[in-house]
Structures are given as C-alpha cells and as structure tokens.
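cron nightly-structures :: item 1 of 1
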Amino acid sequence: MLRFHNIATYVAYLSHLSPSGLFLVIVASGHVIPIPESITLILLGYLAAVGKGKIIILLFVASLSTLLADLVMYAISLSGSKLALYFEKKINIDWIEKYRTKEEKRLFFLVLASHFVPGWRFANPIIAGVTRMPWRKFILYTFVSSLIYAPFFILSGFFFHKDILPLISTVESIRHLLFYLLIIMTLILIGMFLEKNKKGYNNHHAEK
C-alpha cells in the first residue's frame, strides 16, 4: 500500500513537470519510480481538477506514453534479442499460452484486460512479441486499449479529486485483489494442465 504522506510531495513534483517530463514519469512509474502507473495517472487527473494542468494535454500525454511504452517492449520482444529472452523468462508460461490459444475476436479483450491487472500490464507487450502477434493487430489493440486505460484513471482523479486519498486506497485494494485472483487462476490452470497430462500418460500406458 502506498504511504499517503508521500503523496503530497509526489503531486508537487508532478505539478512542475513539462509534458515531456510527464511522459517520462508515466513510462517510469511502477519500474524506476516505485509508484504504480495507475496512481500516477490518477494524480495527474487531480492536478487538472485543481487547476495545475490542462486535462486535454494530460490525456494526450498519458495515452501516448502508455502506447509507445508498449510498442517499444513489443518490438524488443519480437526481435528475439538477449533482452527479449531475459524478459520472456520472467513471464508466466500460462499467460503466454492464453495469447496463443485465444480466438482472434477474444484476443482484443485479453489485451485490454491486461492493462488493468498488476504485473500483466508490463507483461502484455512482451507476451505479444514472444507469441509473434502481427504488428498491425498489436498496434490497433494497444492503441484502443491505451485510449481507454489512461483516460479512465486520469478522469477518475479529475472527477473524484475531493476524495483523492480514498480513491487511491480503493484502486490499490482492487489492484492487489486482481493480482491475487490472477495467481489463484494461474495455479488452477497449472493444476488442470498437470491433471490432463497425468490422465494422458495413464491412458497411454493402459493401452500398452
């Protein structure tokens, strides 16, 4: 959980940044900066609500930064470089299989959902690159997802700026809940996969 006594300092820091500086901060959030990207976006909405930023500019910068960050990670993963292999080893194998087995009409919703789940947000472009998702399809899906994801959090901070701390607390709680649900789902899928292989192995030996 975020320490709320650091929020004021972070907000003050964000309020003095240029659009290019905000772009870099959003990209670094959750990685170099130990504050989740979603919280940074909410705080940008808060700044716009209190007159310390223009909402249109913030929406544009945020959407662009999330889109370009995903495109860069996708390109790296698609290249098959050592860095791509390093990232691939960090990704849960079941997540990769989801992208390979999903029907095309459901793949978009998988990419969209990944933007809102902790851990999966970073993994999404890497998995897309590893599974060789066509670049035109990835750009389209990610473009639409970015136009939903970034404005959702910025507008949440904008419209609920008077209750910013409860809002952040709620978002953090939901993020953790989604993360734990993802772990549980992954364990269930692994169990089903092992059980299926076990039955296949037993049937194979029974036929002999």
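cron nightly-structures :: done
The chain has a mean pLDDT of 78.
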